[in-house]
Amino acid sequence: MRRRPPRPRSLRLHGTVARELGIRIVSGVLQPGQILDGEIAASVQFNVSRTAYREAIRILAAKGLVNSRPKIGTQVSPRREWHLLDPDVLSWIFVGEPDERLIASLFELRRIVEPDAARLAATRRTPEQLARMKAGLDGVAQHGFATEIGRRCDEEFHSALLEASANDFIVSLTSGVAAAIAITTAFKQHRLPAPHDALPVHLAVYEAIAAQDAEGAHDAMARLVDRGFSDTMEARDPGAARPIAVCC
After folding, report:
1. 62, 152, 155, 181: which has the highest count of C-beta atoms within 10 A?
2. Can you tell me whether residue 64 is helix, strand or coil?
3. What is the pTM of this model?
4. Dihedral of CA 67/72/76/79: which sign?
5. pLDDT given for residue 4 in this prediction
């Protein structure tokens, strides 16, 4: 009796199935309202056990991407239910060609939150938080945005800044905003032959916060977010970059 060939290890992992389906959903291959294949057919398609497939669906449901209904099955959720600041969902959005409207919405959120967070941080930051911001930027200067360690240092700068706002609701956005910054930065670095050097404007934000210049910190952060939006749009579609609307 011939043995079946062993399944590739990667396809035994429910996380791999969740990632593949997640990418299909956020890219529009699977549309909101569309019914996914049944458990048996899907487990054959992905070469995984039914248990692994069920776990993958649970992961997607927890991120708001799918919902299961009796007698209907598992269907793709409306976009309004997606947890767009979930780090996995964000990373899946930027795997291929990210939707222009989602990019604009992401940077609108950053434009609403981060400049005012910087303004608050200028008057509320602790010496420890200021030191974390400085250490993060020192790491970026040493390693650059093109490296993973450099992007982690950038995340630390932004995380410390949001925490320095001392606003619990802003602080609750830290993991999502930090993930968005890391993912869009990597996207720009991989797509653009000579990305704009964002370190000087990061330093301008830091220096304003260190000097307790609230308005200077706000304005520098607004410039940083606007530059990030323009570069991300250029990375998505060279020549299509456009300024983001000033919200306030």
Report:
1. 181
2. coil
3. 0.82
4. negative
5. 41
